[in-house]
Amino acid sequence: MTLRENLEKWEEIYLSPYATKSSRSMGRMRQEEPCDIRPVFQRDRDRILHSKSFRRLKDKTQVFLSPEGDHYRTRLTHTLEVAQNARTIAKALRLNEELAEAIALGHDVGHTPFGHAGERALDRVCPYGFEHSEQSVRTVDLLEKNGQGLNLTFEVRDGIRNHQTKGHPVTLEGCIVRMSDKIAYIYHDMDDAIRAGILTEEDIPKEITEVAGKTTGERLNCFIHDIVTNSFEKNEICMSEQVGQAMMKLRSFMFERVYTNPIAKVEENKAEILIETLYDYYLHHLELLPKDLLDLMEHGGEPRERIVCDYIGAMTDRFAIAKYEEIYIPKTWQY
Description:
By secondary structure, this protein is an all-alpha fold. The protein has helices spanning 3-14, 40-49, 52-56, 75-92, 97-106, 115-125, 132-147, 154-161, 172-195, 206-212, 216-231, 241-259, 268-283, 291-298, 304-313, 317-328.
């Protein structure tokens, strides 16, 4: 018996009957030999962690564009916080931690530069639309490894696709990531907003703090404990009505005071114009796109508009700005 088979047997004995077992995965798009050491979801986690799209998250905006400070979150640190929340909840509920972590690590790999500003811009100009959850699946299915994709399991791909509020994951681990994503961004975006001087703890309505806590740490602790307590030994992931309402009120408060705050978002219009300009430029200069993307268009039948979105959507903030400057900003004359 291989080490992987021993681990799969351990899952059958120890994990909750509601957990997604590695040995019962619905499989991959392309069949392949199993690893002798790692169960399938651990293998998926490793593939995502070693991917180029995951590494690029370190230079992509979470909420604040080009903040002046070392402690503001990026899309990568957001992803790691989602993964940690998800593992904590999954472990407490005896669900599959490795599946939850794999989904969490992959959920934003298709996100654009400049956060949701970049996403809005591409969705506006691309005739096929653009949504980062679908782009994340496209990234792991097709764009990684020069068009080969990562060949992840159905369960991980489903969790990535359905991590947003409107999604309905088929696994409890996917449901955990869906909630962990909200908890993470509410927690860390508020922490960053307080650091930036946009908010103070005293600004948060008492109807929220009396239920969920008076500090960001207390609220994070409250939300996670509430999910574990209310989901234990159940075939669903849920919160108590009182805490769930407090979290939604806090989310609404953040949209009002931070996500649509003109001070916090002053640079977003510039970012959207930059993305739209790059899209139009590359749509008329396809020859400048990387060879692997051109191959997908010429031999895979992918439409040029989608391929241009693939290229721009994968850019980091810094790379997008550099390309814009290279194309449109006059260079200093040298004598």
